[in-house]
Backbone:
């Protein structure tokens, strides 16, 4: 590890010592350090960042050996956009709240960096979802690690969404919206809407309605080699489509399809950070007194 990048948003006061410890540790290892423009702008007054080179928000292949995402899961999803297809590994340092993706806690940062620089880690290749539409609404970043969603916009009226699997009609959803999530996204927005939790290496999509009016509708799991397409009917002339935390307003008469992206993003997994351990910790599983 000779070239390391750091991305983050505004660092809260209680996490300042952790971030300073990261900067000091990396300086002691004589690595070439890069910081994202947003990290520098938000935190230049809290740390001496003038000596570090900023990198553009889309890294080139081979520009750095790894990227440290400092924050919560939302920050790590930003980092996914920065690395894109470059296969740059990402280590998530959790200074946020839940942290299903950013699993390295502040108290374990020194051990994490020791593992990182000694090669004691594996790469967890996470699948992404790719959006196909007549017009590219997200420029060249029509992909997401968590989910694609179609949502109503500023109205009390439901929207009607027809869903097709490889062109074959599946169902019509009367709802506030509909999302298609990856296994990684199963612990995100989909989970809050009643979707199932999937192991990260499961090869599937999860179709989850948002507040459906059809009482017999349930989430469904589809193998990810299928193409899912959608037609929307709405009383309003516009609606929202989103890829993770990014959303745009579009005309209600557009059609969309999603497929599995043709590339993955590697997340750095340290020896003690397993998905099952994260589930137990974050969801409080196994703490029943009967256990």
Residues:
């Amino acid at each position: 590890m000779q070239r390391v990048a750091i991305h983050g948003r505004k660092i809260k006061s209680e996490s300042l010592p952790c971030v300073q410890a990261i900067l000091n540790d990396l300086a002691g290892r004589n690595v070439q350090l890069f910081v994202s423009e947003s990290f520098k702008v938000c935190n230049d007054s809290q740390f001496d960042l003038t000596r570090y080179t900023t990198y553009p928000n889309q890294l080139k292949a081979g520009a750095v050996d790894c990227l440290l995402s400092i924050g919560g899961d939302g920050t790590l999803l930003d980092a996914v956009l920065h690395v894109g297809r470059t296969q740059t590994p990402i280590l998530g340092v959790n200074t946020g709240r839940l942290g299903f993706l950013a699993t390295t806690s502040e108290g374990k940062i020194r051990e994490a960096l020791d593992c990182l620089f000694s090669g004691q880690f594996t790469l967890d290749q996470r699948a992404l979802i790719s959006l196909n539409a007549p017009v590219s609404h997200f420029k060249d970043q029509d992909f997401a690690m968590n989910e694609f969603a179609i949502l109503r916009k500023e109205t009390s009226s439901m929207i009607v969404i027809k869903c097709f699997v490889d062109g074959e009609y599946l169902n019509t959803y009367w709802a506030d919206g509909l999302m298609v999530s990856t296994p990684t996204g199963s612990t995100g927005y989909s989970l809050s809407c009643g979707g199932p939790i999937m192991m990260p290496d499961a090869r599937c999509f999860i179709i989850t309605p948002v507040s459906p009016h059809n009482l017999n509708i349930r989430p469904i799991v589809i193998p990810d080699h299928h193409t899912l397409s959608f037609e929307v009917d709405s009383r309003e002339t516009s609606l929202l489509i989103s890829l993770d935390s990014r959303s745009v307003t579009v005309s209600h008469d557009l059609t969309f399809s999603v497929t599995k992206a043709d590339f993955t993003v590697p997340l750095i997994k340290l020896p003690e950070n397993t998905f099952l351990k994260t589930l137990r910790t974050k969801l409080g599983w196994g703490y029943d007194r009967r256990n």
User: Anything to note?
Assistant: The chain has two domains: 3-121+270-283, 128-261.
